[in-house]
Amino acid sequence: MTIFSEKEITRLKEAASLLLEAEKTLPVLKTLAWDRSHADSFFASGETIPPTPTYSKIDTQVCDEQVSAARALIDGSSPVHNWLTRFADVTERTAEMLGAVGTADFYRHSKELYGSPSTPIADGKRTALDLALHLDEILSEFDGAAVQLDPSEKLTADDLKVALEQELPKYFGEHVPDVEVTDKVSAKAAAGSDYIKLRSDAMFSDLDVGQLLQHEALIHIATGFNGRAQPHFPILGESHAGNARTQEGLAVFSEFISGHLDPNRLKRLADRAIAIDMSAQGADFIELYRFFKEKDAHHNPIEAFESARRVVRGGLVNGGGPFTKDSVYLSGLVDVHHYLRTAIRAGDTKLIRLLFVGKVDLKDLEAMELLLSQNLITMPQLMPPWATDLRYTLSYLAYSTFLNGINAEKIAPQHKAWLSQ
């Protein structure tokens, strides 16, 4: 096993510090954000004139210099060196993507960073688009029932704020994130390093309480806190394109394993991946808007606009250049699910807790284990209940590993005869 000298540890920590500062100069989602006036104008036009967003240009000179200086310090061969090198690569590609906002090149850089719905996942044969189309087909069969089963959206943003403020202290203690109701966000809800923002005019259901708690608070905010609390490598608190797939997959898995991933939510994630592929094939904003409006069980125009915005932000409104980040929710879910089942086979719960030491990608876990073995990082302080009390999670994953070996296609004919009657 690699043993780092004090001199090498100092170099690695300095490189990580430089990369952290470089990454902080690249606010991806803030740069790609749209002002609410675009929605107002779109609806004022009778939903006929697509938005025309403009984006601020990012000066990447300081970022480039810091990455270059960090690379000079990452001179060695180990999982930790590989982790920091990947971070440097991602930071450079992110700078290139932000330098290409509003152009066709933006889509090319986005695919390199996040992949796309057609990027192979799991066994290298299937894709997130395959999963999205599968989910959309199956769950669409239940659309009528889903509307009946799904609670009507009857909580205001203020109601949801109260509900979250009752739940969050149970898990965060003195580190409770703020919950803010505002008209400054486009999405129904958005989270930062220590806050959750709720759109003031949005309506929510009781299911949204659990989803936001599990996804935003107990994964995104908690892993960020754990990472920033690392005494030697606070870089682990930083979100970036290189850990987005695992982080979003972990967040969706948290919804799923805790019983808060309802059919409409899962179908919405699938439809985003389908829409990204549609945009890549040339669909414009209005086509995407109509697609989401039709797919929404409640045909909500505001949420359809928001979903279409997510697909084209930073890229081309008129088609051919989507922002591909939303394809990572499904691909990441598959990745995380398979990793957790592998960890169960290995019989080591530490392999699960490593996911929470900060904002990591699955490819980073070998580096995390090495850092942990040399007391250069600590085990996480904040984790969701399903990861701290693993009884149900272990039972489910152990059962799941057995089911994975069963050929469902051979079993299906046993049931089809009477099911089709």
Beta fraction: under 5%
**What is the N-to-C order of secondary-structure elements (H for helix, E for strand)?**
HHHHHHEEHHEHHEEEEHHHHHHHHHHH
**What is the β-strand count?**
7
Instruction: Specify the number of helices.
Output: 21
The helical percent reads 55-70%
Shape, please? globular
Backbone CA Rg: 22 Å
Give unreliable regions as ranges.
Answer: none
Distance between the termini: 62 Å
This entry's quaternary arrangement is single chain
Average pLDDT value?
Answer: 91
- Order the strands across the largest sheet as they lie in space: 4-6-5
Q: From the helix content, strand content and strand pairing, which structural class follows?
A: mainly alpha
Largest sheet: 3 strands, mixed
Short description:
This protein is mainly alpha-helical and 421 residues long. The protein is 60% helix and 5% strand.
Can you walk me through this structure?
This protein is 60% helix and 5% strand. The termini are far apart. Strands 4-6-5 form a three-stranded mixed β-sheet, with helices on one face. The protein has a two-stranded antiparallel sheet with strand order 1-2. Helix 14 crosses helix 15. Strand 1 and strand 2 form a beta hairpin. The longest helix is centred in the middle third of the chain and has 23 residues, at 206-228. With 421 residues, the protein is mainly alpha-helical. The protein contains 21 helices and seven strands. The protein is globular and about 65 Å long.
